[in-house]
Amino acid sequence: MSAPERIPPRSVTPHELLAKGELTVRGQVRDASNAVLYCTVEYEGHSAACVYKPVAGERPLWDFPDGTLAQREVAAYELSEAMGWGLVPPTVLRDGPYGPGMCQLWIDAPDGEADESALLALVEGEEPGPGWKAVGYADVGEDRTALLVHADDERLRRLAVLDAVINNGDRKGGHLLPAADGRLYAIDHGVTFNADDKLRTLLWGWAGEPLPEEAMEALRRLSADLAEGSPLAGRLAELITPAEIDALRERVAELLRTGRHREPSGQWPAIPWPPV
Ligand SMILES: Nc1ncnc2c1ncn2[C@@H]1O[C@H](COP(=O)(O)OP(=O)(O)O)[C@@H](O)[C@H]1O
Ligand SMILES: [Mg+2]
């Protein structure tokens, strides 16, 4: 008698796993401003680690309507996918043990510890040094300042463009997750898509420089994908307001018009504090 054939589990995408899997809370991430739960999802023999941020655990903010941060995180993922750069880990809106919230694939740091030191640094003097771009001077205590720099890295450059598109109000160093596979992921996109200019980021190193051709191409594609009645516009309509979608289209159009990386508007603190 031959051994019964084992049927391998059907392959599922991370998106499907996150959306349909059974969600189990394993712990809480400390030092987060909102409730951030470390979880596992299991579905048809597959499992993965993820974060679950229930809407009920969102801290109210003066400049964003209450209970909308989870949707903004999913909208940021949609835009990252639409630009084709895969910078935001798969993120879905779903129900969980503490009610509706966002669920995002957990990204393991190569050695288990997040380390942004290859991406960000504080240096003495006025020159960023080869391979680095200057952001600005930061107060480092004892009446001293140091030059904040970030790596001249194409992944960060794409992220600078994505942040300008999604109007990210809080791009800190801790939100950059270099993964074991050499990719760079970006997280924490709750304060995005405001209709007013809120761009606050560390990634000002290319401010005013011409956008690379790959960014222009991605923006042209995105502009077409955002047309009224498109599938992407339909999905975004479930996540952010019509005024916010119009402002998004306007930001994309403006980047295409200038063909340059965004510069600080001067109306809003341009660098988050603390930067890391
Ligand atoms: N997808 C993820 N993969 C790995 N770590 C994550 C992920 N999402 C969040 N974290 C960890 O949880 C912390 C808090 O998450 P964050 O998105 O910053 O929450 P908050 O909304 O409270 O600012 C992060 O600094 C990071 O250490
Ligand atoms: Mg955070």
From TrEMBL:
InterPro entries in the record: CHP03843
NCBIfam families, sorted: SCO1664 family protein
Record protein name field: SCO1664 family protein
